[in-house]
Write a structure and sequence with these properties.
Immunoglobulin-like; rod-shaped; mainly beta; 2 domains
């Protein structure tokens, strides 16, 4: 007759031995991740690509982000055999990325209804055994329990922030030399199950965030009584129009800098014309003693990255004394203009 007490002791002993086995395979963490985080949308959706069993992979497989942006990834597992537990060792370049939080997934989790969550087995960020960015997590069944194969589902999710531009792969394939910490899947008898890991998210934006195509227009505004002209004359405001193209970055503001005859720079914000999809600003008219106006623009994205244009310039055409209509000669038309505007105290 089977002694019930002996069965319970046997089960508890096996559980403790199993837990000890996995805890000894995990390094000491530098930081613990809180368990009360909300699970992102990536945990509940179906994978874009269901890799053929046996496989572990990262969703989304590839994408691009701007500096300062945060994104979520989820690690998936698809195994044909019975599974008792598994470990995820996710490596990344800490120069380019920072893991801000992580947790086991909830909806669609591979071990849903079977898992045991030992506190030290929560996903641990930037563990020291690799010398670079890493995320380590273990999940498994209670003793004598297992997941019947074939089966697929999610394991962990992690949130990353982009620190610098450059290619950076989330790596599931690298094995460490210190203690043999790597990715593994175990069957009910604690034997390794062979599977193929697939690397994931790659930050691919190495191009400048913004590009300033060209100087579209420096056309004078020709205020009264000036005649239309392709030259910028003394006292004549000049409209500056710029075309700015953007890649994955969000253009936030455009600042124009201008100066007169190599003097002090003046700064002002340009206005976006949605009809022409151009940025515009009017530089005030300059005195008849001015020779040259220079200007350039700084285009900022939403996280403060700036793209700077080349420096443009235009000359100020000096008018003869008495030339009131800007036709570069003094004649009866100027006398008529003076008579028409006699008594006015400001420039129209």
């Amino acid at each position: 007759m089977v002694n019930r007490r002996d069965v319970i002791i046997s089960v508890l002993t096996m559980f403790c031995l199993t837990a000890t086995l996995f805890l000894t395979r995990l390094p000491v963490s530098q930081s613990e991740v809180e368990n009360n985080l909300q699970v992102g949308a990536s945990d509940t959706r179906k994978p874009t690509v269901l890799y053929a069993a046996n496989a572990m992979w990262i969703e989304p497989n590839q994408s691009a982000c701007a500096i300062g942006n945060r994104f979520n990834v989820t690690v998936w597992l698809n195994i044909t055999e019975d599974v008792f537990g598994c470990q995820v060792a996710l490596l990344y370049n800490r120069t380019h990325l920072m893991c801000t939080r992580a947790n086991h997934t909830s909806t669609g989790n591979y071990f849903e209804g079977h898992g045991v969550d030992i506190p030290s087995n929560s996903p641990r960020i930037d563990t020291s055994f690799l010398g670079n960015g890493s995320l380590l997590a273990y999940e498994g069944c209670l003793s004598l329990d297992f997941i019947a194969g074939p089966h697929s589902g999610t394991l962990i999710w992690a949130e990353f922030e982009v620190l610098t531009l450059g290619n950076s792969t989330l790596d599931l394939t690298t094995e460490t030399s210190a203690g043999g910490y790597n990715n593994f899947v175990l069957g009910p008898e604690l034997a390794d199950i062979s599977f193929t890991p697939h690397d994931g998210y790659v930050v691919t934006d190495t191009t400048p965030p913004l590009s300033i195509d060209h100087f579209i227009s420096g056309k004078p505004t020709c205020p009264r009584p000036y005649l239309p002209s392709n030259y910028t004359r003394a006292n004549e405001p000049t409209q500056v129009t710029m075309n700015i193209s953007q890649t994955v970055y969000n253009l936030f503001s455009v600042l124009l800098h201008y100066r007169v005859d190599a003097g002090e720079w003046w700064n002002t914000t340009m206005t976006y014309n949605s009809t022409g999809q151009l940025w515009e600003l009017t530089i005030p008219g300059q005195s008849n003693s001015t020779s040259t106006v220079e200007f350039f623009i700084d285009a900022y994205d939403h996280v403060g990255i700036v793209a700077t244009s080349e420096t443009f310039s235009y000359p100020i055409e000096h008018l003869p004394v008495g030339d009131l209509n800007g036709d570069f000669k003094v004649d009866g038309k100027d006398i008529a203009t003076a008579t028409l505007h006699f008594g006015e105290a400001i420039f129209p």
